[in-house]
Amino acid sequence: MTEEISEKPKAGKRPHGLGRGLSALLGDVTREEPIAPAVGAGAQLKAIQSIEIALIHPHPEQPRRHFDEGALQELAESIGKRGVIQPIIVRPHGGGFQIVAGERRWRAAQRAQLHRIPAIVRDFDEAETLEIALVENIQREDLNPIEEAEAYRKLIGQFHHSQDALARLVGKSRSHIANLMRLLDLPDTVQQAVTENRLSMGHARALIGAPDCESMARTVEHKGLSVRDTEALVRRARKGDPASEAPSRTTSAGGKDADIAALEQHLADILGLKVDIDHGEDGAAAGVLTLRYSTLDQLDMLCQRLTGERI
Q1: Domains plus CATH for the chain?
Q2: 97's torsion region: left (phi>0), alpha (psi -120 to 50) or beta?
Q3: What is the mean pLDDT of the chain?
Q4: Tens digits of residue pLDDT in 53-86
Q5: How far is CA 115 from CA 36, 173, 196, in A?
């Protein structure tokens, strides 16, 4: 399994305004330069260069924290046979280079006992570095919901991005970003369960603000409850609380079937877009699935996921 993206869009394949993503942030990249650059001012920016792995170190604020050992070993074996096809992105830092995007490839290359790795050298500041790392991981769907939420929080808190600006940057809806950041209100043990994929984002959202949240999360995990069952469990636990009388998101004002409403929310959580499912009358042979986007970047992201194409 390789972890690759194409930095160069295919000529004539995209209408103007689409396919921005990393290319818009990185700019054009020139041909590969086989000679390793000198560190510092002499480093040739924008070219693909061969750099000693020992000169490269990861960024301490990399959004991705969890690396699956099995997948990492599989990538290392692929790199050992074929080499690193897609260069990583680095910036000059501290007498060497700091990774902006591609830490997983760098780790796998070390396991494959490579001494050099292809890299694009760019002079990014701290905010740009985090933006690039976040966009790259989201485009590859590598971040778990907690890692993604923490990256959004850092961009908002430390670099003063608004939720609207982040939505445009990553091609997600503003509500998706807001909902993800609410996950950070959960206890650490519940966040860890989401990070380790023992609980889904849907489960976690249902547990936000629940009484004795940690105990309830253990019950959900051990019994293998569905998201709908988890929501029902939380509602029962809140009985007697006036706030619990408000309609849940699975019972819409129009009386939509709870399972359909839950599926809509599940798809919306994955895509970061508003999803509407019209299942039709009972016994109908077909229904309608509607995905709503508000920007060309969101449309581009959706096209990538439907076709499997990477920017």
Answers
A1: 21-146 (3.90.1530.30), 174-294 (1.10.10)
A2: beta
A3: 75
A4: 999 998 887 777 777 788 888 889 999 988 888 8
A5: 12, 41, 32
CA distance 204 to 105: 30
Q: Which of 121, 98, 102, 114 is nearest to 37 (CA)?
A: 121
Name the β-bridge partners of 25. none
List, in sequence order, every beta strand (DSSP E) within the chain.
Answer: 32-33, 48-52, 56-57, 88-93, 96-101, 116-121, 274-278, 288-292
The active-site residue out of 103, 147, 150, 231 is 103
Verify whether residue 309 is a known catalytic residue.
no
For residues 139 and 133, what is the distance between their CA atoms, to the nearest angstrom?
Answer: 10
Cα separation of 28 and 189, whole Å? Answer: 43
